[in-house]
Amino acid sequence: MNHAPALSVRQGLVYVSTAAAAWGTGGAAGAMLHDAGRLSPVAVSFWRFACGAALLLVVARGRPSWRAVLLVGPAMAVCQAAYFAAIAETGVAVATMITMGSAPLLVAAGGRIFLGEPLGRTALACAGLALAGLAMLTGGAAAPAGPAGVGYCLVSAAAYSFVTLATRRMPAEGVAVWGFAGGALCLLPLAAGGGLLPTGHTMTSVLLLGYLAIVPTALAYRLFFTGLGVVGGVTASVVSLLEPLVAAVAGVVLLGERMTAVQAGGGAVLLCALVWLARAELRDGPVRGSRPGKPGC
């Protein structure tokens, strides 16, 4: 039995928000790693998962979670691989908007059907506002998306939604470490085909890989899975939209990218939606975010 202190809704929101912000820095770090070490996106994901699992394994307690290895790990690998495939087909802006835009809707539908979670009007309204901000932030996604690109986006979003819903009843520590282990095993054959080891600036690559393993992986996913214990699935998926906002800011600061007025406005709209949703979650208490139970569980 777990005797750890119960997490409050406020703490859960902080955990999920911090995780999303940390994920947002991973894109810039991955781009710099690609330039410095000439590693493919799949190889970056493999090392991210493998090193994250190794870090968490040092402090892990209890037995291996084979449910996380066999269910969560492959789903995380599919989410990453499908997202990279979507980027190759449609570009970053369109892939981000479709994947992250459809994820809250899939989480809401899956939570209602499989977990019996209620669909609050406020949460749905905030989700709609956040998606509008996301569309502005990604530049409106003016480029057309073909069927293959859209399909990859939906596969990635479905895998993310599965992870979000399936881990609601799993211990956060076990999900993170063993989910990474399973994901790394799934990505290994794909990564090996394009080269596993960096061929450019070795020291820079090692430092960037260390950052990816610690901050946007081990720390972020541990916080996210822990926060899911008290924050509703829809709320968590909407708050996770902080990731593209932080990624856009990191691109401007670290990579010299430019942000248009429309994108800046989209970021402001997205932030307003997240603040509105957080205030509603705190006001309503942990009922909507608590783990839904079933008879006999």
From TrEMBL:
Q: Where is the EamA domain?
A: 12-138, 151-277
Q: Where in the cell is it found?
A: Membrane
**What Pfam families does its record include?**
EamA (PF00892)
Tell me the organism. Microbispora amethystogenes
Q: Which InterPro entries match?
A: AA-Vitamin_Transporters, EamA_dom, EmrE-like
Give the membrane topology: Multi-pass membrane protein
Question: What family does this chain come from, according to its entry?
Answer: Belongs to the EamA transporter family.
Per its record, how is this protein called by name?
Membrane protein
Bilayer-spanning residue ranges: 12-33, 39-59, 66-86, 92-115, 122-143, 149-168, 175-197, 203-221, 228-255, 261-278
* Keyword tags: Membrane, Transmembrane, Transmembrane helix
